[in-house]
């Protein structure tokens, strides 16, 4: 896996011309995460924005049971990040918080996902790419003050018809919660996706597909 990420990084730096920045070694052996993002990217700072970080592909608890991301950071195009922050404010007015499952997804990782799912209804085809690959899509849900996810009638990344927004046979509460999330996101400048209640595209769509992969803090070496 390490080799895989190394390879992706090589592609990332090779194709995009990003320069490697110097990362200082701190006295305790931890490698600090660099805050210098490439131009045109913003990071969602979960704590200060009061959003919940559940970036599922930075862990194995996802439909592939594989950790795809080097660590759980949410990168978006600046306008998209602003729109998401606006959505967070609307959720807060209802005593809710946004729970973020996925943001920008490097294109090479999109290809890997397609290999596993191979259904264009749920994972964008190679070549076309997803708005996630452009930093212009977000997967998310809502959580209440007690930290309970709102019932949306299916789990995130349940690639079946029950995840279609207008699926018939949803409990009234789940349908209501889906609409609540959709209203918040539409009011903030996002477009919903009928096949996945959790997926929203930002309205502006002329961003390029990107291969940029973010830095991560490495565990202390003893
Ligand atoms: Zn999505």
Topology:
Elements: H1 2-16, E1 42-44, H2 46-49, E2 52-53, E3 74-76, H3 78-93, E4 97-102, H4 107-117, E5 137-143, H5 172-187, E6 190-193, E7 196-202
Parallel strand pairs: 2-4
Antiparallel strand pairs: 1-3, 4-5, 5-7, 6-7
Helix pairs in contact: 3-5
The site of zinc ion has 5 residues, from strand 5.
Catalytic activity: D-alanyl-D-alanine + H2O = 2 D-alanine
Active site: 196 (proton donor/acceptor)
Keywords: Cell wall biogenesis/degradation, Dipeptidase, Hydrolase, Metal-binding, Metalloprotease, Protease, Zinc
Order of helices and strands: HEHEEHEHEHEE
State the share of residues found in helices, binned by percent: 25-40%
Number of domains: 1
End-to-end CA span? 22 Å
| Major sheet: arrangement of strands | 2-4-5-7-6
**Which geometry do the CA atoms define?**
globular
Q: Counting H and I runs of at least 4 residues, what is the number of helices?
A: 5
Give me the CATH fold name.
Answer: Muramoyl-pentapeptide Carboxypeptidase, domain 2
Question: So what's the CATH class?
Answer: Alpha Beta
Q: Write down the overall mean pLDDT.
A: 83
Structural class: alpha+beta
* Residue runs with pLDDT of under 50 for 5 or more positions: 1-33
Q: Could you say which small molecules are bound to this protein?
A: zinc ion
- Radius of gyration, Cα only, in angstroms? 18 Å
């Amino acid at each position: 896996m390490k080799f895989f990420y190394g390879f992706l990084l090589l592609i990332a730096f090779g194709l995009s011309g990003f320069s490697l920045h110097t990362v200082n070694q701190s006295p305790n052996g931890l490698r600090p995460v660099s805050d210098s993002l490439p131009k045109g990217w913003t990071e969602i700072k979960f704590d200060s924005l009061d959003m919940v970080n559940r970036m599922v592909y930075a862990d194995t608890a996802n439909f592939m049971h594989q950790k795809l991301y080097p660590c759980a950071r949410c990168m978006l195009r600046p306008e998209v990040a602003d729109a998401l922050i606006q959505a967070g404010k609307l959720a807060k007015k209802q005593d809710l918080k946004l729970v973020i499952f996925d943001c920008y997804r490097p294109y090479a990782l999109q290809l890997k996902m397609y290999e596993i799912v191979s259904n264009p209804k749920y994972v964008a085809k190679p070549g076309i790419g997803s708005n996630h690959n452009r930093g212009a899509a977000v997967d998310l849900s809502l959580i209440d003050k007690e930290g309970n996810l709102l019932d949306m009638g299916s789990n995130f990344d349940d690639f079946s018809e029950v995840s279609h927004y207008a699926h018939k046979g949803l409990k009234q509460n789940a349908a209501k919660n889906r609409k609540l999330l959709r209203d918040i996101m539409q009011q903030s400048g996002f477009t919903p996706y009928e096949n996945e209640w959790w997926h929203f595209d930002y309205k502006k769509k002329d961003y390029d597909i990107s291969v940029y992969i973010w830095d991560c803090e490495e565990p202390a070496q003893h």
